[in-house]
Amino acid sequence: xxxxxxNELLYIRRSVPxxxxxxxxxxxxxxxxxARQGSSVYLxxxxxxxxxxxxxxxxxxxxxxxxxxxxxxDLHTLAKATGCAVEAIxxxxxxxxxxxxxxxxxxxxxxxGMATPAAIAVARQPVNTGSEPLRRxxxxxxxxxxxxPLKRIAHVVLGxxxxxxxxAWFRDTLGMLPSDEVFRATGEAxxxxxxxxxKGDEYVDHHAFLPMRSDDVGLQHVSFESQDIDAVxxxxxxxxxxxxxxxxxxxxxxxxxxxxxYWNDPLGYAHEHxxxxxxxxxxxxxxxxxxxxxxxTQWGEPATExxxxxxxx
Length: 313
Prior knowledge:
Helix content: 10-25%
Strand order of the largest sheet: 19-10-11-13-9-14-17-16-15-20
Mean pLDDT: 96
Oligomer: single chain
Number of strands: 20
CATH superfamily: 2,3-Dihydroxybiphenyl 1,2-Dioxygenase, domain 1
C-alpha cells in the first residue's frame, strides 16, 4: 500500500539566470503568463489550473515539480508518514503543500487547495473524418503567426542511474502505477518505468512521470498537451521560424502513443508538444518490454543522439 494516491502532475519549477529569456521561449512554445512574484514568473495552459510552470532567478537547474493531492486529509497523512510539515504556500495561487525529496534529490511538492481559475477558451475547428463530416461549408483556417495555447503540463521525464529505486519511491509514496516497464534485455538493467496516477476507474494519461536510465541526473524533458494534432504540426513550423533548436519529431511513440515534437529552450532543456495519448484506468495491466521493442516510434525517425543524451541538472 502506498501512503497516498496523488492526482495529476501540477507544475515544474526551475531556476534560470535570465527569467525573461526563458519566459519568452515558453510563451512562444504556447504557455500563458499567469502571475509574477518578485523576479519569479508563473505560467499556465488553457486548462483550469492556476499555473503549470514556475521560473525563478538563479543558476540554471531543475528545482523540482509538483503533483496535486486528492484531499487536505491526504496532505496530513503524507506529513505524518514522512515527518514533513504541511505548510501554507506563499506564492500566487496559494494552497497548502507537503514538500518531499525524491531519490535523486529533487523537490516534489504535493499540493492541495491551489486557486482554480476559469479555463481559457480556444476556438478550434472540427476535423472531417469518416462519412459524416463535422465541418460543412466551412473552410479550415488555422491561426497564423503565434503558437497555439497549450492545454496543460502532462509529464516529466527524469534522467537517473537509479530507475528502479526512483520508480519504487513514486509507487510507494504517491501510489503511482506502472503502465510499461522497459529493460535493456530480458533479465538485464531497467531502462525506464512509465508511471501513471491512480484514479480508480477514471481514465488517465499513460504516464505522468517517467524515470529513464542515464549516467547523469536531471531533466530529460517536460511535456505539454497541445490542443490537437494540427496544433502540434503548425507549432513545429512556428518554432522553426523563430530559430529554436529542434530535438526530435514529428512522430508517434509506441509506448503512450502520443504524436510528439521536441524542442530545446535557450538553455538546452527539452520541451515536448504532444497530442492523442493512450489513456488507462487503474485496472490496466503493466506491459514489459525490451528496449529495442518498446522504445521505438510507430512512425517517424528514431530518436536522435542529441535527444537521448539531453539530460540537464
